[in-house]
Every structure is written in structure tokens, then in C-alpha cells.
Amino acid sequence: PVVLFFTGGGAPCEVYVRLLREMGRSWRVLVVEREGYGRSIRGDDTGEEGTSSSRGKQIMARDSAEELSALLRVMGVKGPYVLVAHSYGAIVAREFLDVQGVHLDKVVGLALIEPASELLYQTHKPVIPPPAFDAVLKGVDVDKVTRLREESGMTDAEWDDAIRGIEKTAPGAALEECRASGRILADKHQLTRHVMSPWPVAVLRCNWAVELQKLFDAGVEAGNGSDEERKQVREFLWAWRAFDDEVRAGLDMAEGGVTRRYTYFEECGHDVPSRRPDVVIQEVGWVM
């Protein structure tokens, strides 16, 4: 099978360099760099109309899924596919599933890593984390608190490539309509209709709230944020934990006898693909 890897929102392939390298040792991997991400240009950047959008138009998950489907046809990559998706990439992956239709011969299974869900963006508004978080984090050495640079295991060159990739991707990522795409996916009632029932599905959840709490505590210790801003961040952290618990409790592990796997890995947060690619690979291997 061919692994189709869907990156998270605003995250080009350079962010996942270690994970992609390790997956490539065992499987054929194609990275889905959406329109405007990394080296993937907007369709009209070459002076021609894109297949789904033109400059300045918001990009829906469905657009990205349709473009990927068309690209795979042109490339002659017929699958079957294992869909591996991180964060917002899970919304795009599930739209891709919808575009493909329910064909057992095209899909082997799904591994959803810290996935965004239909209601995530509706539950947490206006952005994740909330604007008040920026005020609380003012002057805080985020890398010192999170130790992401150290724990990523990247070389200096790889880290620099990732930073440049993120900066280059930012304009394109800003055009993605995450909230509207989540709402559209919700209206399709994939879970109610058991759209994923034919395949094994692995879901990996981590402990992002703890990492956010550490950052919040560092900001408070530095004297940052007004009482109201701190209150807003505390409410967000509470809501995030509650939402995560609801998602975990609501996942039916054995519906219809179909194999499901839910793994809670509390040792790191949302950036688990960068910190612990081995944990992600375990989930992909299980789907295989």
C-alpha cells in the first residue's frame, strides 16, 4: 500500500522530516503538500487558473481532497492507500475518503494523529489557542519551556529548513478555511453513516493541554496578561481538556465489529510527529 501523509495546518513537510524518513524505510510514502504549502505553488502563481481556486480565494478541505485525487490519477498512483493525517490534515483526509467513495480496494485504513474533528473549530473560537494567550506569553522563551528544538532530534540544517518552510507556507495556510471545512464535514455525518466502518482506524491522542499549561504558568510567573486575559486562557484550557475527554469517551471502539484503536500518549503534546515519530509509526504499522 501507499501511505498518503496529510500534514497539519500551516505545517510543511520539512516539519515532519524525521517521521517521513522513518516511514520511508518500510513503506512508499507520498506527502500531501496542499496548495500554497512549501514547494507547492498556488495554481494561479504560474499565470493559470488553479483547479480549485484563484489567488485570494479561501481554500476548503474539499478543494484539497479533489486536487489530490486528480493528481494521483495523473501520476498513475492507484493505491491502495493508507491515510495518515496530523491535526487539520485529518479533515482533508476524511474529505479525500469522501471523494474516493466507499471502495474497499482503494483504502487500507486510516491513522489519525492528534486529529482535528468536525466540532473542534466550532468549540474553540475565534482561534486555537485564544488571542489572550499571546498576551500571557509575551517575552516567554517558548522553546526553553517546551524543549521542542531539543526533543525534535533534528539537525541544525533540518531545523532551519523547517522554520523557513513554515514561514513560506504561512500565506497559503492563512487561506485555508479550517472552521468552514469542519462544519461541512459535520454536515456529511460520516460517523453516523459509518463511512469509515470498512477499514481499521487508529486514533492517537496526546496531552497538549499539559504543554499549554506549562506555557501559561511561565507567562503568569513573568507577570504577563491581565486578570481577564488569564481568565480567558484558563477557560480555554478547561474547555480543551473537557472536549478531549468527550472525544475519547465518545469513540466506539468496536462498533459493528470493525477494528478500532484509540491510543492516549500523555508524554508529549500536539507535535508528537516531531518529538516521537516512533509512536506515530506504531499506529501506522497497526493499520497495515
From TrEMBL:
**AB hydrolase-1 domain boundaries:** 3-282
User: What's the superkingdom here?
Assistant: Eukaryota
What Gene3D superfamilies would the database entry show?
Answer: alpha/beta hydrolase (3.40.50.1820)
Full protein name: Alpha/beta-hydrolase
Species of origin reads Polyplosphaeria fusca
